[in-house]
Amino acid sequence: MAYPAKTTKDLMIAVTSGMILLMQALLPFIFLMLPLQVEKPLIWASDEEGGAPYLFRDSTLEQKGFELDIIRAISAHIGRPIEFKQYPFDNLIPGLLKGDFDFAMNGLEITEERKKTIRFSKPYYIYRQQLVTRADEKRFQTLLGCKTTKGAIIGTMEATQAERLLDQEGIPKRIYPSPTEAYADLASTDRIDAVFMDLPMALQYALPDKRLRFAGKPTARGFYGIAFRPQDEELAKKVDSAIEEIRGNGKLRSILVKWNLWDDYQEELSPGFLYEEEGRPDFSGPSLIEQSQSWSFGQYLPMLLEGAWVTIELTASSFALALLMGLPLALARLYGPAWLKATALTYVEFFRGIPVLLLLFFLYFGLPAVSDYWGLGFSISLSPFMAATLGLGLNYAAFEAENLRTAIQSIPKGQWEAAASLGMCRTLAFRRIIMPQALRVALPTLTNDLVALFKDTSIASVVALVELNKQYQILAKSSLKFVELGIITAILYLALSLPLGRLARRLEHKLAPEHK
Amino acid sequence: MHIRARGIRKRFQDRTILDGVNLFVESGKTLVLLGPSGSGKSTMLRCLNGLNTFDEGTVDVGDRSLQAGHSGQFSSYTRDLRKLLGMVFQDFQLFPHLSVLQNIMEAPVTVSGVSKTEARLQALELLKSVGLENHGQHYPSQLSGGQKQRVAIARALAMRPKALLCDEITSSLDPELKHEVLEVLEKLQERGLTLLMVTHEIGFARKAADHIVFMADGKVVEEGKPSSVLDSPVADRTRNFLANILG
């Protein structure tokens, strides 16, 4: 440089102009490179969370899975790179239709119903469903036995053929986001009595677990296919021919053998086999799916209302817990001895600082593991409702404690003195004079928090609690009526939260009678 | 029932607020505490019924006595003593969430266990005696300052105290409202209630007090009959104070 840079400003100007020069020099090359970029990679969506053996990460965090192997084979055949995109399993179909990715492959069953909106590829695996029970289960060994066993609940995954089969048979079910949670719950809690899922999952998670046992033979055969949007016919055809190719040359077989998934059923995938059955799952009888797809208002409203009722129950129970714990915490922080003050403060800081979601996961999935680990004689397994109540309640207790504490502190010292001068003892003064005034100070914030909690209950769906929001998701994904159901659900939420506000105003009025 | 305080000392950090104060009121008499602000007269009054603690000295109320270093405003002992001594505050401290009637009924019902009907009858009577018989259903925020203070007096009287402590109860009132409160006090005097007042109302003191105590810097500077303290004060501090107040 001709002149030494004297100030920072000078230096910055020098650097900036240097960069501009460099950019100008490179620009032609950038343009040259553009046509060289052959084709954009295809985006493949799948859920690797609890996704073994389909797609998962091993202990070295490397991506593995039999579907990944198939994808690689297809990619080589069609000559296009394929990129993975993580997507929640139960949202794969809506996500595909929305255009978030090019295709979905994640053990998606080819069904007549799905074929109405989805272009499925040729099948690449023939699945069956496996019932798994605890090793010491004596009450039943089959689905039918399950149905006749009182109180038996079967765990399964949302938006799967297994779930629909359970619905069709009228067997009580509990929905899990992935197989890991379901099998863990079955092994170490009594929340569910069996798990009914696709054979690959059972082979992966249940077979190695000594506490679990395969009940009976696999049933209900069907096909896995890759899901495309109908308008992407050209792409789908290319992939079809790729699948036929790897079926024919034994590549698919070697992949399935490698993953221990090969069985006699897969022979049907061999060339020359007749595929007339493709797309029709093996279990017969009147398809309840068919009926449930002609969704009408009268059919889903009762289900939404059922979800709304769970939301109300959960809001009420967790807010009651929050207040029940919040007041003692506030009092401990205000009037307790030093150690109690410190304990209460620690509680508030801790539960205010950790996400409710984390807390819920821990309470629901973590606690049973903890009791297992320490070899406690009993299992700390909370029901979904209990876990959600506890999680939300513990979290909101921290906020309500602070709210009540500041409200109590805001009452002038003179009120305590006036009460004392009339001969009241401390508790009487608090109960009759201070608390009623503190409550009306706290009420607007309490109301706010109650409405916030009301909406926060939707988090509870992670612990398999089907409340209003979850019910909406389930119904919307099954019927694809996102807008219609969304509006109705929103109306339900509003219809419930608006009265809350009114109730609070009435209470405020009652607590502040002088402002009549 | 007499009230006697002996050698009351109170320190706050390194400041001496009360420096060996003695007080004596005979049963049924009226004592007025005068003094510049910061002289410790309000603190002294609050020591008498245990709202404030003190470091040395004794307070006797009738046959009960309160020792230095008692455990504070909510100890059960001060509570018993407080039933004998009603208190009225400068800033009223009515309970804003209760109606006038409820304010008066609250302590008799919850502290003394009087039945609600009885407490109600008594409250109505007390309201009548302070000239507010039509305001029972009002809430404190709907009353004027003078009315509030009269309710506060009625509330204190509802516990049937033997004496009433009045802490500058007319200081935050407009001149025309002071009158209605002082009138109530005169009526109470006639009925034989012992009164201890911290006040700046020289006129009222001259007319109503049996005994005047003048305090400054935490000490009693001068005391005696109104005529002697107000008309021929001996101490310089008293003279200056009176000159300032009477303008």
Short account of what is shown:
The complex is a heterodimer of chains A (516) and B (247). Chain A has helices at residues 8-33, 66-78, 92-98, 112-115, 143-148, 161-169, 179-188, 199-206, 233-248, 251-258, 288-293, 297-335, 338-353, 356-373, 384-409, 413-421, 426-456, 468-479, 482-511, and strands at residues 42-46, 56-57, 63-64, 82-86, 103-104, 119-120, 125-134, 154-157, 173-176, 194-198, 212-224, 227-228.
Characteristic key phrases:
heterodimer; A: 516 residues; alpha/beta; five-stranded mixed sheet; 19 helices; 57% helix; 11% strand; globular; disordered N terminus; B: 247 residues; Rossmann fold; four-stranded antiparallel sheet; 9 helices; 25% strand
Number of strand segments of chain A: 12
What strand line-up does the widest sheet of chain B have? 6-7-8-3-9-10
Classify the oligomer: heterodimer
Radius of gyration of chain B: 18 Å
How far apart lie the N and C ends of chain B? 37 Å
Question: What is the structural class of chain B?
Answer: alpha/beta
CATH architecture label of chain B:
3-Layer(aba) Sandwich
Task: Name the chain pair with the biggest interface and residue counts per chain.
Answer: A-B, 25 and 31 residues
Question: How many beta strands in the DSSP annotation of chain B?
Answer: 10
Give the helix/strand class of chain A: alpha/beta
Runs of chain B with pLDDT <50, length 5+?
none
Count of runs of 4 or more consecutive helical residues of chain B: 9
Helix content of chain A: 55-70%
Helix content of chain B: 25-40%
How would you characterize this protein structure?
The complex is a heterodimer of chains A (516) and B (247). Helix content of chain A is 57%, strand content 11%. Chain A is an alpha/beta fold. A five-stranded mixed β-sheet of chain A has the order 4-1-5-12-6, with helices on both faces. Chain A has a five-stranded mixed β-sheet with strand order 9-8-10-7-11, with helices on both faces. In chain A, strands 2-3 form a two-stranded antiparallel ribbon. In chain A, helix 2 (66-78) runs antiparallel to helix 10 (251-258) and helix 16 crosses helix 17 (426-456). Chain A starts with 7 loop residues before the first helix and ends in a 5-residue tail after the last helix. Residues 1-5 and 274-293 of chain A have low confidence and may be disordered. In chain B, helix 3 (100-110) crosses helix 4 (116-129), helix 3 (100-110) packs parallel to helix 5 and helix 4 packs across helix 5. Chain B is built from nine helices and ten strands. Helices cover 38% and strands 25% of the residues of chain B. Chain B has one domain (3-93, 162-246): P-loop containing nucleotide triphosphate hydrolases (Rossmann fold). The mean pLDDT of chain B is 91. Chain B has helices at residues 41-48, 76-84, 100-110, 116-129, 145-157, 175-190, 202-208, 226-231, 236-246; strands at residues 3-12, 15-25, 30-34, 56-61, 64-67, 85-88, 163-167, 194-198, 211-216, 219-224. By secondary structure, chain B is an alpha/beta fold. Chain B has a six-stranded mixed β-sheet, sandwiched between helices.
